[in-house]
Automatic annotation (TrEMBL):
Its EC number is 2.7.4.25. It catalyses: dCMP + ATP = dCDP + ADP; CMP + ATP = CDP + ADP. HAMAP family: Cytidyl_kinase_type1. GO terms for biological process: nucleobase-containing small molecule interconversion; pyrimidine nucleotide metabolic process. Belongs to the cytidylate kinase family. Type 1 subfamily. GO terms for cellular component: cytosol. It comes from the Bacteria. ATP binds at G14, H15, S16, S17, C18, G19, K20, S21, T22. This is Cytidylate kinase. It is an enzyme of class 2 (transferase).
Length: 231
């Protein structure tokens, strides 16, 4: 494919666990763009809140979090040895911890808080100043970059999404049932779609990609084709 000279912004939004990050990383590698995982940012704030005992019975102590949130510094590094993007909370590598089920169970509660979103969105825009970015999340095409050059809205059948996440977590050694994952994925979708602040929505100019029956290679080719159609 021809890589466009202009450094584009590509927004990939969609439902929980539907493979957004897989295709975003594959595309970033292919066209030498920067991949930014906005979900990892909400996961880091959630881990921080959990460690500070700010979440109990589905309730977040928002006052305390507002006081402490400036202690949260998020950064990303690419680990060439492990060939993966890694997330840091202050100087600590938290990539594995933020993907665990206890963080997934709380992240949508944190992600619906206005001041948390404002801080994360400012950071997402800061990181993307130079363009040449692929960012995945829930509000990238609607709120973070309403003028993104290409917007994709991804989804897949909930059962397929649950099975994919189940395999991913099992491979990492997490002891978890498929039922628990299905419930988590559906609950996060519900909270993300129904919150007041930047609810998960397809932007009016986003193209829908249902990848229920696509391989990673097929979904990558699908997006590359959309990019080639841009000009
Ligand atoms: O598990 P999955 O990879 O689908 O989720 P994620 O991208 O890591 O995002 C975790 C959670 O963060 C989502 O369920 C949303 O509640 C929240 N999120 C958000 O509100 N806005 C974003 N731009 C990205 C994630």
């Amino acid at each position: 494919m021809d890589i466009p000279e202009k450094k584009l912004i590509i927004a990939i939004d969609g439902h929980s666990s539907c493979g957004k990050s897989t295709v975003a990383k594959d595309l970033a590698k292919k066209i030498k763009y920067t991949y930014i995982d906005s979900g990892a940012m909400y996961r880091v704030v959630t881990l921080f809140a959990m460690r500070n005992n700010l979440i109990s019975k589905d309730k977040v102590d928002e006052n305390k979090l507002a006081h402490l949130i400036n202690q949260v510094n998020i950064s990303f590094q690419y680990n060439t040895e492990k060939q993966r993007h890694e997330t840091y909370l202050n100087a600590e590598l938290v990539e594995d911890e933020i993907r665990k089920m206890d963080v997934s169970n709380n992240v949508s509660l944190i992600a619906k808080i206005k001041f948390v979103r404002e801080k994360m969105v400012a950071f997402q825009r800061e990181l993307s100043k130079e363009g040449g970015v692929i960012m995945d999340g829930r509000d990238i095409g609607t709120v973070v970059f309403p003028n993104a050059d290409l917007k994709i809205f991804m989804t897949a059948d909930v059962e397929i999404r649950a099975i994919r996440r189940y395999k991913e977590l099992k491979d990492k050694g997490e002891n978890i049932s498929l039922d628990e994952i299905r419930e988590n994925v559906s609950k996060r979708d519900f909270i993300d779609e129904n919150r007041d602040e930047s609810p998960l929505r397809k932007a009016s100019d986003a193209i829908v990609l249902n990848n229920s029956h696509l391989t990673p290679e097929e979904q990558l080719n699908w997006i590359v084709k959309r990019m080639n159609e841009l000009k």
